[in-house]
Write a structure and sequence with these properties.
alpha+beta
Amino acid sequence: MNPALTALVVHDLKNALGHLEAGLAQLELDPSKDQARRAHQQCRELRQRFVMFLTLYGAQGQEMQAWRTDESPMDFLQGLARRVLAPEGAVPLAVAECPQAPPVWFFDPRLVGLALEAALHNAWRFARTRITLGARRDGEHLVLWIEDDGPGLGAEDPGAEHSTGLGTELCRAVARAHGQGTLAGEVKLFNAPQGGARFELWL
């Protein structure tokens, strides 16, 4: 793992812990449900960042290993949509109808889930009214995609001061771990034809 990225992530985690500590102190003074909900959300977001960091840190100096199991891509996406913790005030998340999705594919659901959660939280920073998840088969690849209806690539990032690049690094490592032979896994990000941005994880 890049030492500069490691230092940046550790600094970000330290700051996040400081915010959580301040939130808990406020909760002690004003024990309201709203304050408790915000503190709980901060705690879950911090835990997610720790898990992403430790996943990458544990693979440093070697390729990340994917433990593949047979999964239904659409069932996997439906489960992800149910369990992922959306930021406060986030736009709705939906899973598209995907007739081109294969019924079964072999991938590591834990690693792919971490990658897509990171990409979803990035999409939530830009989306105006919706975020859509989907899957398709493209040749010998399974493509899992996330599309938002925000301003598209190149727009000013409202969360830039909190962005470390950890999520992007994790997505790329997960994609590489799902390569096979001469077929490489990869991440693609581009403007969607109907507006907004589209993230694709090729496995």
